[in-house]
Amino acid sequence: MKIVAQKPESLTDAQFHYCPGCTHGIIHRLIAECLDEMNLRESAIGICPVGCAVLAYNYFNCDMLEAAHGRAPAVATGVKRMLPDRCVFTYQGDGDLASIGMGEIVHASARGEKITVIFVNNTLYGMTGGQMAPTTLLGQVTTTSPYGRTAEQAGYPIKIAELLAQNEGSAYISRMAVNSPANIRKTKKSIKKAFQTQIDRKGFSLVEILSTCPTNWGLSPIDALKWLEENMIPYYPLGEFKVKEDMQYG
Amino acid sequence: MDKVLMKGNEALAEGAVRAGCRAYFGYPITPSSEIAEYMARKYPKIGGTFLQAESELAAINMVYGAAAAGARVMTASSGPGISLKQEGISFLAEAELPCVIVNISRGGPGLGGIQPAQSDYFQATRGGGHGDYHIMVLAPAGVQEMMDLAIEAFELADKYRIPVMIMAEGTLGQMMEPVVLREQVAEFYNKPWATTGCKNRKPNIINTLHLSPDVLEQRNVHLQNKYINIKLREKRAETYMTEDADIVVVAFGIMARVARKSIMEVRKQGVKVGLIRPITLWPFPDDVVEKVSDTAKIFLSLEISMGQMVEDIKLAVNGRRPVDFYGRIGITPNPEEVSKRLLMLAAEEGLR
Ligand SMILES: Cc1ncc(C[n+]2csc(CCOP(=O)(O)OP(=O)(O)O)c2C)c(N)n1
Ligand code: SF4
Question: Whole-angstrom Cα distance, residue B327 to residue B325?
Fold first, then answer.
């Protein structure tokens, strides 16, 4: 018998708690596949955020830490500086990374910290019930922007990939989406590149991934994928924003 | 043994180095910055990690990561910076990650001032952040003790898997005294729980989230049991002329030194005064206070604060003796004014 598909070794047997149709699960699987294929599971140390992925330590079959809200890049810095030959990654939502943890992420990037950040942008705070995030689109209705986000009242959505790409310490920065099989394949490739950037000690690496929250968007899983494509991708363009090939330091 | 003249902050930093600490994360603040500067000079030469973090928030979370990776790690700050670290300290306490946090203390609230103070006593001894926890708190009273207690702090932190704070007034950080350099610590604790990569073992998880009420309660009971154990074994205090004393001053850190001067002065005038110097502020040496209250007539808490330790003394004395208080903030009480206060107290109580 030939096995054509199976659970990656880098995932445990625990059942995901994510809502039906939520793409957090797909992203977990992609990371696990990359860890497997790059033979990184035994040297990987992952840092969970505070957000819907707070329990990710139950799902990844490698050493895991759970950090305070927004502080994962600082925790990852502490781990990586002690264990420079391990593969250290954080998994963070947009409230965690782009709001409360903005200081830590900008400085980890500026320092060229040799860590890999998986940044899940679903335009709102999933775990706490769908409040506005710094990534919420203009006009988007959330529980704390009940009449739609306006620029006067709440300013503009932050483009993290573009922002961090400007930092000299950033070696690989991309934005991907998991709304279609083709995009999922591209996302996996990008995650691999980010891990490779860390292994090659080139600097900081981050993959922003546009993700759905059908529960708080009030949409069916299929409509949520469509909403992502029609609303998020036009504002948050996909692609690689920084690929540092030459520089090698540290 | 040879002695070298050292600044308190540098003696503490060198103590950490001799304890095998090879990682320092911090953000500058007066009067603690010499510790960071010392490590910045030292570590590149001996293969340690010095990192100036973007904030105290980041620094304490870097400590969390380094401690989780199994390293001996330290951060130092003062007043406002220590406040910013409190969320992280709560996480460290629950995750049972050993580390050393130094508060070279200054006066608050708010930005306060840069003069020495002891007004972070409550913050240090009551946990400081959210949740039911304690950290160990050590209070040196001289530059030699800055070094000795730094070494001790790392041993205690690893032994009990607990964050240990060294709280020393800015005075101690800044002043110079001769110091005997201690031996390099050679033996270290095994840390099989550390997140170092899961090669040849099951994955380790370091986590502070416990959504199930039962598990959360169990975790809290586990921590409380650890605290009971620490209280049984680690209370430390120094006593000075308490045997025949009618008035017993309780003072820690630099105030204990002020108290000693006053005690000598006041004893010349026929008033029997003694001193208890808590070395561990948590656990508070209530056993020593309780024992002394068999013979003492009155206690005086002497602090550079508005009266915080007075609560712990009262708890230890448990109503058996009165507990008086003298303290200032921003200004360190000098021996003359303390003597005056002691003489006044003696007159009021008919002890002269
Ligand atoms: C210091 C602190 N503030 C607030 C919270 C409450 N909180 C938990 S998760 C969360 C937002 C998470 O949203 P996001 O990072 O976008 O992740 P998602 O749940 O959408 O995956 C907030 C505000 C907290 N746990 N800690
Ligand atoms: S709340 Fe949203 S982000 Fe969280 S698991 Fe459910 S669908 Fe996913």
Answer: 7
Which of A45, A59, A60, A61 to probe by mutation at the B interface, max B CB count within 10 Å?
A45
- CATH 1.20.272.10 assigned to domain A24-243? The reply is no
CB contact under 8 A, B58 and A82: no
Is B78:B29 a contact under the CB 8 Å cutoff? yes
Residue showing tokens 């201690």: B182
Q: Which residue of B has its CA nearest to A12?
A: B203
A interface test, pick of B43, B56, B62 with most A CB neighbours within 10 Å: B62
Q: What is the pLDDT of residue B148?
A: 98
Residue A192 phi/psi, 5-degree rounding, is -60, -45
The residue ranges of DSSP E strands in chain A, in sequence order, are 44-48, 63-66, 87-93, 116-121, 124-125, 131-132, 170-177, 204-210, 239-243
Contact (CB, 8 A) for A71 and A104: yes
Q: Which of A16, A94, A89 is nearest to A55 (CA)?
A: A16
Burial class (CB in 10 A: 0-12, 13-18, 19+), B280: buried
* Per-position pLDDT tens, chain B of length 352: 789 999 999 999 999 999 999 999 999 999 999 999 999 999 999 999 999 999 999 999 999 999 999 999 999 999 999 999 999 999 999 999 999 999 999 999 999 999 999 999 999 999 999 999 999 999 999 999 999 999 999 999 999 999 999 999 999 999 999 999 999 999 999 999 999 999 999 999 999 999 999 999 999 999 999 999 999 999 999 999 999 999 999 999 999 999 999 999 999 999 999 999 999 999 999 999 999 999 999 999 999 999 999 999 999 999 999 999 999 998 999 999 999 999 999 999 999 7
CA distances from B208 to A126, B97, B115, B135 (A): 20, 11, 36, 16
Nearest ligand 1 atom to the CA of A99 is: 15
User: In DSSP terms, which residues pair with B7 in a beta bridge?
Assistant: B176
Residues from B in contact with A at Cβ < 8 Å: 23, 25, 49, 51, 53-55, 57-59, 61-71, 73, 87-88, 91, 195-200, 203-209
Output the CA torsion sign for B103, B107, B113, B114: negative
ipTM value for the complex? 0.97
Domains of chain B in start order, with CATH, are 3-234 (3.40.50.970), 237-348 (3.40.50.920)
CA nearest neighbour of B57 among B25, B32, B31 = B25
A87-93/B176-180 β-pairing: unpaired
Positions in chain A whose pLDDT score sits under 50: 248-250
What is the spatial distance between Cα B118 and Cα B82, in angstroms, rounded to a whole number? 13
Rounded to the nearest angstrom, the minimum Cα separation between B192 and chain A is 12
Alpha carbon of residue A50 to chain centroid: 13
- The domains of chain A are located at 24-243
Laid out side by side, the sheet with B273-278 consists of B237-240, B273-278, B247-250, B298-303, B323-327
Residues 6+ apart with CB under 8 A from B83: B123
pLDDT score recorded for residue B53: 98
- Tell me the one-letter amino acid at A43: S
Query: Hey, whose CA ends up nearest to atom 21 of ligand 1?
Result: A52
Q: For residue A39, how many other CB atoms are within 10 A of its CB?
A: 9
User: Does residue A207 have its Cβ closer than 6 Å to ligand 2?
Assistant: no
